[in-house]
Amino acid sequence: MFLEFYGATDTVTGSMHRLHVGEVDILLDCGLFQGHRAEANQRNREVPSWAAKSHCLVLSHAHIDHSGNIPSLVKRGFEGNVYCTPPTRDLCSVMLRDAALIQEQDARHLNKRFQREGSREHVEPIYTIDDAQQAIAQMVSLPLHRSLLIAPGVTLTFHNAGHVLGSALTLLDLEEAGRHVRLLYTGDLGRRELPLLEAPEILKNIDFLLIESTYGNRMHPTIETLDDHLAEIVNETIKRGGRVLIPSFALERAQEVLYALERLHNRKKVPRVPIYIDSPLAIAITEIYKLHPESLDTDVRLQLLNHDDPFSPPGLQYVSDVAASRRLQESSEPCIVIAGSGMCEGGRILHHLMHGLEDPRNSVVIVGFMAQHTLGRRLVEERRKVKVFGVDRDVRARVHALDGLSAHADRKDLVDFVRKVSAVGHVKRVALVHGEEEARDALGAALREQGVPQVIPATKGERIPL
Fold this sequence. Notes:
The protein has about 475 residues and is α/β, with parallel strands linked by helices. It folds into two domains: about 1-220 and about 410-465, 4-Layer Sandwich (Metallo-beta-lactamase, Chain A), CATH 3.60.15; about 225-405, Rossmann fold (3-Layer(aba) Sandwich). The chain is built from 15 helices and 22 strands. The protein has helices spanning about 35-45, 50, 65, 70-75, 85-115, 130-135, 225-240, 255-265, 280-290, 300-305, 320-330, 350-355, 375-380, 410-425, 435-450, and strands at about 1-5, 15-20, 25-30, 55-60, 80-85, 140, 150, 155-160, 170-175, 180-185, 210, 245, 275-280, 315-320, 335-340, 365, 385-390, 390-395, 400, 430-435, 455, 465. The strands form four sheets. A seven-stranded mixed beta sheet has the order 6-5-4-3-2-1-22. A seven-stranded mixed beta sheet has the order 7-8-9-10-11-20-21, with helices on one face. Strand 8 (about 155-160) and strand 9 form a beta hairpin. Helix 5 runs antiparallel to helix 9 (about 280-290) and helix 11 (about 320-330) packs parallel to helix 12 (about 350-355). The termini are close together.
């Protein structure tokens, strides 16, 4: 038995790990790498041959950096089952098709440009809608707390990770040559105080823990502090006659922002202004949230069962078609715009930034982790000039970073989770993935101080015997 790290090492994207037991390989996640466009394009096309031949894949949750390259795997011949929770399958059914559509549109756009320029260069999409649909067809839903033998000597049980709708702690009971190992992979771990979802579960008798480290060197503010900061930004921006532009991941972050605005309206902390969700994907995902009240926090579940929509603050309007989105981009009406994508590397938010970055009345509110080499990271770093669609833009709008809306566990959450799991078991080794080097190493030092016997900072291609 061994575990091999392939993706999300020294970075927070492209999650993929190889579990080898007996005669078979099992994949843990298969996500898209996000970063420099040329590098991302190359890395996302490089699916290792052993991955395509794997017996099956276990998917922790639907975020694209964990699920987004499954269609590439299928395109290269993977025929195994993809095990996930029922909400994750529902979310992937819209998210993977959307990712494929973007791939096809980008390829068509580039090929038209090459044709105009007289170039013979031709671009193929990383994968197509047909590949995405085949990937969805191979997904097998497994509810929380139901155990299933997924390969000889490998039993899978999902538990609540508290990160996004459907996110799961992946518990794998492994048997080989009379040895038993209990491996827990967190995927992305949620925060205990997030208002939308239940807190992550604490599991017993774990031998090997594979855990994320995204915020291993940082602490989140409280939800109350976050609400106050968001209210301050909205009030000041609207008073200036500006617009609040919120780049957002369609999954979880958009719903958290809507729920926060709903709370603020109920407490009369923000004025009633138009709120636009300019993202067909976020609209579809919000409806999927409503289909799964069993996966939500008790208070949110009761709101839904009482027909009180927690994702619909006053003034909310959905923007689906392209023409309406263009009119909104060109408007100067004071409002709040929530648009994809989260790291500002694609989607409709780029058009809003193109029109709005140079207006000092506006605010850009960053509500999630921004990976290196993304436009979102450059905005957080307070660059005064950035490229949007290849054109330099002066950043005159005010940029605010609200880490408090992140669904990732922070340093304290991560350390507390390891401590509690260790207290009810015998965790011998902890491997750290899904974190940039500084965050990963800071978390590793904190865990060693807690007395964890062995902490492994994962590196690409490294094999750890189990």
